[in-house]
Amino acid sequence: MNGEAGAASPVGLEQTLEPAWHMPLWFCIVYAVAVVAFASWVYARERGRANKWMRAALVVLRSSLFFIVLWMLAGWTRQQFETQPPELAIVLDRSASMATADIEPAGGRSPSAAQPRFEWAVQSLTEIDDRQKATLRRRYRIRGFTVAEALDPVGDILARDELAPLAADGQESRLGDGLIQVIRRQTGRGTAAIVFLSDGINTHGSTLQEAAQAARRGAVPIYAVLTGRAQAIPDLRIAEFMMDRDVFLGDRVVTEVVVAGTNVPASDVTVALVDGQTQRTLDQQRVRLEGARAQQNVRLDFVPQRAGEIPLRIEVRPLTEEVDVDNNRQETSVRVQDREISVLIVSDQPSYEFRFLKNLLQRVRGEGDAPTSSFALRCVLQRADAGYVREDPTAIRLTPSDEDEINRFDAFVFLDCDPALISRRSQELIYAAVVERGAGCIFASADPTFWTELSAWPLGDLLPLAGPPAELTLIADQPFRWQPTPLGLGVLPMQLESSDEESMTIWRQLPKLLARSPLGSLRPAAQVLATTMPGDQPVLVSMYAGAGRVALQATDETYRWATFLGSDLYYQRYWGQMLRWLSRGKLAPPEQESQLVVQPRQAAFGQPVRVDVLLGTEVAEADLPSHVQVSITGMRQTGLVLNRDANDRRRYSGTIDDLPPGQYRVLVTQPAAAGDLNQPLEVAPPPSESTNLQPDVEAMRQLADVSRGRFFEYPEFQSMLRQLPPGRAARIGNLPPEPVWNHPWVAALFVMLITTEWLLRRRCRMV
Length: 767
Prior knowledge:
Blueprint: E1 12-18, H1 25-45, H2 52-74, E2 77-84, E3 87-93, E4 101-103, E5 115-116, H3 117-126, H4 130-139, E6 141-147, E7 151-154, H5 160-163, H6 175-186, E8 191-198, H7 208-217, E9 222-226, E10 235-243, E11 246-248, E12 253-275, E13 281-302, E14 308-316, E15 329-337, E16 341-347, H8 352-363, E17 375-381, H9 386-391, H10 403-407, E18 411-415, H11 424-437, E19 440-444, H12 448-454, E20 481-484, H13 500-509, E21 527-533, E22 538-545, E23 548-553, H14 569-582, E24 595-599, E25 602-603, E26 609-614, E27 627-634, E28 638-644, E29 651-656, E30 662-670, E31 678-683, H15 697-706, E32 710-713, H16 717-722, E33 730-734, E34 738-739, H17 744-763
Parallel strand pairs: 3-6, 3-8, 8-9, 9-32, 11-15, 16-17, 16-18, 18-19, 19-23, 25-31
Antiparallel strand pairs: 1-2, 2-33, 2-34, 4-5, 6-7, 10-12, 12-13, 12-14, 14-15, 20-21, 21-22, 22-23, 24-26, 26-29, 27-28, 27-30, 28-29, 30-31
Helix pairs in contact: 1-2, 2-17, 6-7, 7-15
């Protein structure tokens, strides 16, 4: 049926006058001027009693006679044509995005009852009232089409029987290609307009802008009807998250989550952390999002109740009007270990900090309902007598210098000790245990000379200080409390209560400390976890050191917290959580192999792909390169240089975002010691129908404006029908021409004019 409506279009007549002798315009102008001038000259010289008005009338009569002669000489004929009404093309988008239910129902019903776009379009076309439908068919020849992967004709697009079998199931939107085909077909056929019902989502082929330019060249206006809500569809997603994957039983596991929203109305959304095995909600927070692009940071935490690998799901509860909910969740897991934490404390003398901490670690066995890992303690008191070692089972005479013995420790605590009394080999082994095996280390002292002396020894390379303090005077006359930084509140040692607000309350109430050490400049990778209040000077600083963590505490008076509220609860929490936090690096397998991680493995076209390489223990610390070379082979061969992570000497990362669609293989080429590391990568073709369901309002508006048509939103559909242009009728045949130059009325007019002129001349005595 070639896309034509079933009802027969009425036939009309159009007539035109055409001359047999086509005279140029200049000739007609010269002839008219000459005739008027000649007649005026004649009557200006004519004698008689005629006044000037009578002479002017006679000039008009004489000139008219000459014009009738010219009319007859041109041989004018009347040509009649049979015509049909102009065509009206109606194009309906049936791509999969048109199945989106976002047409607001009448009567203010719930958004859950929203009508799919395609269903609304079909209903709007087929339920036009009979009177208006008859008017349309009388005024236009209606051509119907649907477009998705290709352009398909529809017999009678205003009939329900024709549209009922159709569905919005097209997996591609070639809207531009389809419109250009319609425009080429309709150009020169007397097309009044193209009515285009679509959401404007175009995924393949020519753009709607190109179609608009083609319509403008073909003088075919497009009346674009936006099918779908002009307001953006809201979308929530878990943009990213960060958490420790290896923890001890009893640790508080903190997850930093970034929740992002697009086109979100002002609303409170719930972000939850769910146990993937039991489906129990471990923690949840409500945050407020609003705007076209909104983002909020959320902190979720929980205390594992069992050892082993715990699957977790981070999710943001979808909004009522949200369509794409697949990106509302991310899955991960945490490995929980239940074992003793082996700690070595080294101190010069039995200070209060040493005594309180030693006593704490010897007796702690659990906290609350969740059992926590206990501590296996060894102490080195550098200036103690020989009898102390025999009396205290935890005491050892010297810092061990045996590699196996050093590697058994998970954490090292140095309390204002003398580095000269620790052998260089022991210090080198401790450094290697931290950097290569993931052990933790904390230095605590209020004496600034301690940092100066330590910086000259191998252990000084673990300090997060860029150099020794500029001031070497202990500060003891400015009482202060600790003020956790925003970053510090997210780490385990600073979480004295279950929420940030409660923890901050406790930190503001803990007893003031008196002595602290000024610190010099910090290394770029150092992180300040707490400052003094007042003064805002760093008092607790941490830093990654290879596979392990290091902390620097610029005071040795935390023992004062042991009597807060008549209990050492918060002193125990601080030091217990500090040592477990520092020791988490030891939870990874000791012989860690090199790893290559490509995220995502299946990337959308144009999406950045992150490549991470973690060099394992097969690459010695001394052989760690400054960069890692990666080769990407497939549809296109290219290389990528990965830069070293500032916080982890063995981690390297980089991104690439200009790969064409296709299959790839990512290989590590340098260093060779990393082994044969490779991962597959797939870059998907440009977006599919389900990638973006937001109507493209701007594209539809430009389509109408550039083509000299009109833009309407879906509630204005009936108004659009009343504003369609009339168009021009199409000629389908011509009747025999009928001469009119020799028509009797021409002769009668000539006789009447010449008679009138003669009578007037006689009256004025000009004859």
